[in-house]
Amino acid sequence: MNEDSLLPPDDALRLTLHNEVHARPPARIRLPAVIVHIAVLNDGVSRADEHAHLRRLPGQHELAEEALNANFLRLRCGEFSMKWERHAEFTRYSVVQPLPADAEPGAQTLDALPLRVAPDWLARIPGRTFAAIKLVMIERPLTFAPSALAEGRAWFGAHAVVASTMGGHSLVVTDFCLRASGFEHIVVLAEPGTPETRAGRICQRLLELETYRLMALRGLPAAKALGATLAEVEATLAAITARLELRGASEAELLDDLISTAARVEHATAEHQYRFGATQAYHAIVQTRLSELHEGKVAGTQTLGEFMQRRLSPAIATVSATAQRLAGLSQRISRASALLRTRVDIATEAQNQQLLAQLGDGQRTQLRMQATVEGLSLAAITYYVVSLLLYFFKALKAEGWLPFSPELAAGVAIPVVLLTVWRTTRRIHRKFFHHP
């Protein structure tokens, strides 16, 4: 940072974020011109692959790979210019060249139009084509719109066209048809003296509009293909929910079925969530580009926005409904799981109560057995103590110290010993078990 700066140190992303507004500037296009635009999906295509292909252009053999780091590059290749743009899912190549002075309006003119870039170079662009457009831009007075529209129609032959004025300074005409050559055709008639920068902005908006429209529609086949699976999952989930009401239904079987259903939904979500989210994002860009055209109606035709939205909106609604349906299934499975968990918890609680009741019965039986054993223990202890006393009395008799029979003395001692042992046992119970 400059030592004389009056500002604190820059954030690491400051320059990148500040320059983002200038990241993809429109080209300066001198009219009349023809723009050949090709957009390819770049899944599996590296920057090195695209760099190697760009180096095959005339005069670009020394192009450094670092030049592609900004995701945008404009090259001057003799009689034409090339604009390269890399996005998250696709890469766009736009060739701008002058429109030949002898080019006459006609349905076959654009298909037969000679290109300054080698056709072999276009065919070898790395990736899979999903959009290809030839855009003609010419200067014509628009003071009388019907005559301008008639000239625009001439480029499309018998095809029905849609047309719009753009900001009052230009007229765009197209038929949204894919030719045998693989290209769509768009014709723009701009007021004489249209600045090159304005022509570049018009071109950029129209090309982005069609590119993002096609990217937005990529979620539609996935949504349609997912419909049958979602219907099957909904039926399965309804059956599982109905079985939850039956008391005799096995919780283990219900859990297995629910896990299997949840796995199918989560797999579908993981597989299609990005595509559905991208569809909404691309559709939002289409809406923005349409608003930037500042369209005006041309008598006798639909505007681009009316034609596009009438066909695009149902597709986007289908994708949105499928995404919501998928999210709703996830929520329903969560609620079913909660119900099953509650049912299992209740069953477990009932089993625990049964176990506690059985444990209580066992404890009472054990106490009775313990009382029986204690009774036998009293008798055994008394027997051994009296036996010892008998030996003691016999010894006293042998020494002449006992005037009566030792057996009589032992018999008399039995109640005393029994009472003493019983009282000692009670004292021990009170000490360890707090018995009264």
UniProtKB/TrEMBL annotation:
The keyword Transmembrane helix applies. Keywords: Membrane, Transmembrane, Transmembrane helix. The keyword Membrane applies. The chain crosses the membrane at residues 373-392, 404-422. This is DUF3422 family protein. InterPro entries: DUF3422 (IPR021830).
